[in-house]
Amino acid sequence: MSDKPQTNPLREGLASRPMPQPCTVVIFGATGDLTHRKLIPALYNIAADGDLPSALTVVGFARRDKTDEQFRGELEEAAKKFSRQTVQDELWQSFANRIYYHRSEFGDDDGYKRLAERLKQIDAERGTRGNRLFYLSVAPTEFEGILEKLKQFGLNKTIEGSWARVIVEKPFGTDLPSAQELNRVVSATFPERDTFRIDHFLGKETAQNIMVLRFANAIFEPLWNHRYIDHVQITASETLGVEGRGPYYESSGALRDMVQNHLLQLLCLVAMEPPTDLSADSVRDEKVKVVRSLRPITGDDVGINVVRGQYSAGAINGKNVKGYREEERVDPKSMTETYVALKLNVDNWRWADVPFYVRVGKRLPKSGTEIAVTFKGAPEVLFNKAVTDVGNNVLVIRIQPDEGISLRMQAKIPGAALRIEPVKMDFHYGTSFGKASPEAYERLLLDAMSGDATLFARRDEVEQAWRFIDAIEDAWHKSQKPPALFEYAAGSWGPKEADELLERDGHTWRRL
User: Which of 206, 276, 393, 416 has its CA 20 to 30 A from that of 27?
Assistant: First the structure.
């Protein structure tokens, strides 16, 4: 692309990021759940780690009537509940003094005039240098109105030496046309280099470590291809149901809610070629190539390579739970999928004939996200199957909750008899480095303040992912004979048809 976001030139190799520049973070929708659960706790933790510029200021923009003190008090309670670090009174007070509340309707001209004046005042008083980071923590239907007002009142414009950027939360549309329209709306106010589409999965330490694991360890990269890898599984499972979000989930479903963004992002990190360098666009160029290489799943192939399911009543951890169609504000005849499993193929030289199995589901027995890379088996010449069953080596990358990496290999059990059993080499972030991993939003906010777009989705990547997903959605919702929606009991690992998807190839799902 001609208008490329770039990393800070001081960031070379694996060197640490330079301190972000002072700026004002303006959060639209500041009274919402995301601000309280994620954004403010993340900024507090960055401050506690000593990485937040002393001049950084937060302005919450929302419709409710509040004073600065009321807003700060509510955020303190949220930080005490959701921060990964204990909130220290003295540090919180210093941090809270940077937070202000700005009451306005999203479409009110006077509200934006007052915002512009307030930002100039903050620049003068706090030394934020005219730098602005606008965070759209609102429904996508509000994006266009907010962006037009920012443009109308010149808030997207910068003076020499300053910058203005926007962070856009998912969902990035609901299909290709809506994603293209959303991108058009954003690009009318901010150039691509200043647009940061956030996917919190990419901010997780283990997701970031995939590139280091692959490209900084000579033992893995020579084996990372179709000659040595048998198949790859990517699983994201949740014990939770829709948790009162019936209307949202009814309009999305598991495929659009999770596969189009989070899981395809993880697949890209596993499958991408080595980038020429660590600049934002070098990395994202390689990810786009992976999405473009996905073999399309269309028409009758959808019923063969994709399984969709919906949970019925069952039990989770010994507690009875209702089925999806019985959830609050869900259509009792709903055909929305809460589970989806796919067999994907990346049609390039590296991954020829290596299947990628991807699954995501709600109301499964255990919550977790992991990538399992299964290598091809060793020759059976020495250890004949008549004596023992030698399993495959499996490299497991745990994204959440217990972030780490494990490698399963075979070893002889002590004793006179030749008996072989799998053993694990296990790496845990917490125990290996002696501290908890930063939350995803901490890393992503720091990167946005530093102008590093590596961990953010680019326009062409988002649109290409929707092209792939739309073909499956069309087969489900526009076909005269759509593939079946299978039922699975809450607390099970999904419909049996998802197991059969792998059994056809002689594989089974890994249990988390």
Answer: 206
- The structure tokens listed for 365 are 């027995």
Backbone angles phi, psi at 406, to 5 degrees: -135, 150
What are the pLDDT digits (tens) for 347-368?
999 999 999 999 999 999 999 9
Residues 229, 375: contact at Cβ < 8 Å?
Answer: yes
Residue with tokens 């999305």: 252
358, β-bridge pairs: 234, 342
Angle value at C-alpha 173, between 168 and 179, nearest 5 degrees? 95
Q: What is the 3-state secondary structure (H, E, C) of 43-111?
A: HHHHHHCCCCCCCCEEEEEECCCCCHHHHHHHHHHHHHHHCCCCCCHHHHHHHHCCEEEEECCCCCHHH
Q: Which residue has the tokens 């390039």?
A: 348
DSSP 255: I
Torsion of Cα atoms, 62 then 64 then 70 then 72, to 10°: -20
Half-sphere exposure of 144 (CA within 13 A, CB side): 9
- Whether the CB-CB separation of 156 and 185 falls below 8 Å is answered with no
Go through the domains of the chain in sequence order and give each one's CATH number.
Answer: 24-162 (3.40.50.720), 203-436+459-503 (3.30.360.10)
- Annotated catalytic sites, by residue? 262
pLDDT tens profile 278-289:
889 999 999 999
Nearest to 23 by CA among 44, 52, 61: 52
What gap in Å lies between CA 290 and CA 209, rounded to an integer? 18
Residues 25 and 42: beta-carbon distance below 8 Å: no
Write out pLDDT tens, residues 366-392.
Answer: 999 999 999 998 777 766 654 556 678
DSSP helix/strand/coil, 355: strand
Assess contact for 128 and 86: CB atoms under 8 A. Answer: no
Closest among 188, 486, 126 to 341, alpha carbons compared:
486
